[in-house]
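Input (structure):
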């Protein structure tokens, strides 16, 4: 279901959306980084240019083709893997950093739980996890509800909206700093809220 919906989405246009590297501390040691759900490379490209050894992974072959072309144009050597975040084709302890922005919100509950366990499995000791998702107060909340706070749109893409407590429960194997942000957007004279929840953490005990 997810794969076809995203293939169709990337055939229409480059997926842009929200973008932020604010939580990436410049002092973080450069290492092997998985951009989990990389799309066409919105984050993979700048992260590679900052000195990380990036592996871009996505379910959409169209998106990965776009990333491959963009990285080649810029002379960047980015690893490219076709897979989903809840069945990662990597050995245990493969990455120093996992970057997963705007991805878990497009999964169902069991898929999100599998993804969190997979992140823990492939992250090295002392490795860092970066996540960002939609919050429940976001202006886009709503649609055909398929699970609590999870909605399906006409394009077949699933949208889930989190709260802070849910993020804490999902990431119970990690010691995380969870940050909420709300920004007002004015459209046709009316104010709308963009609610994002971010998490930065390490595996408990590391």
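Output (sequence):
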């Amino acid at each position: 279901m997810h794969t076809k919906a995203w293939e169709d989405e990337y055939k229409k246009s480059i997926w842009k959306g929200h973008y932020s590297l604010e939580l990436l501390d410049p002092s973080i040691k450069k290492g092997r980084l998985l951009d989990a759900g990389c799309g066409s490379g919105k984050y993979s490209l700048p992260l590679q240019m900052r000195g990380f050894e990036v592996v871009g992974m996505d379910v959409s072959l169209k998106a990965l083709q776009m990333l491959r072309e963009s990285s080649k144009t810029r002379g960047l050597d980015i690893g490219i893997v076709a897979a989903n975040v809840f069945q990662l084709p990597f050995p245990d302890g493969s990455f120093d950093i996992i970057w997963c922005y705007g991805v878990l919100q497009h999964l169902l509950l069991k898929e999100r739980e599998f993804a969190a366990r997979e992140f823990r499995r492939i992250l090295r000791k002392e490795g860092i996890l970066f996540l960002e998702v939609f919050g429940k107060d976001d202006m886009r909340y709503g649609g055909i509800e398929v699970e609590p706070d999870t909605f399906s749109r006409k394009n077949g893409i699933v949208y889930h909206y989190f709260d802070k407590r849910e993020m804490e429960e999902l990431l119970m194997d990690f010691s995380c700093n969870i940050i909420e942000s709300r920004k007002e957007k004015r459209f046709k004279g009316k104010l709308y809220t963009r609610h994002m929840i971010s998490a930065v953490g390490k595996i408990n005990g590391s």
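Notes: The first strand starts at residue 32 and ends at 36. The two ends are 36 Å apart (CA to CA).
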